[in-house]
From TrEMBL, chain A:
<keyword id="KW-0813">Transport</keyword>
<dbReference type="GO" id="GO:0030964">
    <property type="term" value="C:NADH dehydrogenase complex"/>
</dbReference>
<keyword id="KW-1278">Translocase</keyword>
<feature type="transmembrane region" description="Helical">
    <location>
        <begin position="66"/>
        <end position="88"/>
    </location>
</feature>
<dbReference type="InterPro" id="IPR001133">
    <property type="entry name" value="NADH_UbQ_OxRdtase_chain4L/K"/>
</dbReference>
<dbReference type="InterPro" id="IPR039428">
    <property type="entry name" value="NUOK/Mnh_C1-like"/>
</dbReference>
<keyword id="KW-0472">Membrane</keyword>
<keyword id="KW-0812">Transmembrane</keyword>
<dbReference type="GO" id="GO:0016651">
    <property type="term" value="F:oxidoreductase activity, acting on NAD(P)H"/>
</dbReference>
UniProtKB/TrEMBL annotation, chain B:
<feature type="transmembrane region" description="Helical">
    <location>
        <begin position="89"/>
        <end position="111"/>
    </location>
</feature>
<feature type="transmembrane region" description="Helical">
    <location>
        <begin position="29"/>
        <end position="45"/>
    </location>
</feature>
<dbReference type="Pfam" id="PF00499">
    <property type="entry name" value="Oxidored_q3"/>
</dbReference>
<protein>
    <submittedName>
        <fullName>Unannotated protein</fullName>
    </submittedName>
</protein>
<keyword id="KW-1133">Transmembrane helix</keyword>
<dbReference type="InterPro" id="IPR001457">
    <property type="entry name" value="NADH_UbQ/plastoQ_OxRdtase_su6"/>
</dbReference>
<dbReference type="InterPro" id="IPR042106">
    <property type="entry name" value="Nuo/plastoQ_OxRdtase_6_NuoJ"/>
</dbReference>
<keyword id="KW-0812">Transmembrane</keyword>
<feature type="transmembrane region" description="Helical">
    <location>
        <begin position="147"/>
        <end position="169"/>
    </location>
</feature>
Length: 105, 183
């Protein structure tokens, strides 16, 4: 009986929503900028999953093309973000986003 | 069978995601991220997006997570951080309530709108016995015809990112003077 149940696109969309929520909580709760970046990657992946699920459901290849561009932008974003983190951490030993309150004028 | 694959991949994805958020050691969090990314790749395969599954593994697991681990090791922050102390007491419960509310909102929207999802595209070519690379060819046709300008702009974006990172990570002379250490 279980074998006859086939996961529909709704299941994938709900999983994407839950994954996005976990990533959002991660960004809001954690103070380590590296972990916050990983949480942002989680959110990007949730969106990618949603894109592919809808692309399959709507039989439209453009959803998968969008995921391709999201991957490229995510790679560029991580490179620049980690560069900024390395540049900050060279000055400060503690790794916490709270330290950036020192930028306040 | 598809149900089994879906359940296994869901466990991978959600377990990895919770690991990223809850583990106190950044290295463990990065490895949990790999688990999530592989689970997503499995889901791409089960939805006949083979090209994206391969790109997902190569770019995310192969490049981005390795970059994360590089930076963690480079900065020497690979020790567990204290998660018990929380400077703002209300932030954590508020964030969890916000997260649950947002997920509830999204799920309600999905369940409300699922009946309005109809096939409206030109169709997706699924790999079959005689045609193994239908997915790749269809994506390539889409990228290099409809989205060729965006594709070219992407190369500019990557060059800008590389140059920006080199500028950011370069060791300036003033740094050396301030700290007195050469790395």
């Amino acid at each position: 009986m279980l074998a006859t149940i086939v996961p529909t696109s709704t299941w994938y969309l709900i999983l994407g929503a839950v994954l996005f929520g976990i990533g959002m909580v991660g960004v809001l709760v954690r103070r380590n900028p590296l972990i916050m970046f990983m949480s942002i990657e989680l959110m990007l992946n949730a969106v990618n999953l949603t894109f592919v699920a809808l692309s399959t459901k709507l039989t439209d290849i453009n959803g998968q093309t969008a995921v391709f561009f999201v991957l490229v932008v995510a790679a560029a974003e991580v490179v620049v973000g980690l560069g900024i983190i390395v540049a900050i951490m060279r000055r400060r030993s503690e790794i916490s986003v709270d330290d950036l309150s020192a930028l306040k004028g | 069978m598809e149900l089994f694959v879906f359940i296994c991949a869901s466990v991978m994805v959600l377990g990895g995601a919770l690991g990223v958020v809850l583990r106190s050691n950044p290295v463990h969090a990065a490895l949990s991220l790999v688990l999530t990314l592989f689970g997503i790749a499995v889901m791409f395969v089960s939805q006949h997006a083979e090209f994206l599954a391969a790109v997902q593994v190569v770019v995310y697991a192969g490049a981005i997570v390795v970059l994360f681990l590089f930076v963690i090791m480079l900065l020497g922050v690979d020790r567990a951080e204290n998660l018990e102390t929380e400077p703002l007491g209300i932030q954590r419960p508020l964030a969890i309530v916000l997260g649950f509310g947002f997920v509830a909102l999204l799920v309600t929207t999905i369940l409300q709108g699922r009946d309005s999802l109809n096939m409206r595209g030109d169709g997706i070519n699924v790999a079959s016995d005689g045609d193994h690379d239908a997915n790749i060819r269809q994506i390539a046709r889409s990228i290099f015809s409809n989205y060729v300008v965006a594709f070219e702009v992407t190369s500019v974006l990557l060059i800008v990112a590389v140059v920006g990172t080199v500028v950011l990570a370069r060791k300036r002379k003033s740094d050396k003077d301030l700290t007195g250490v050469t790395a």
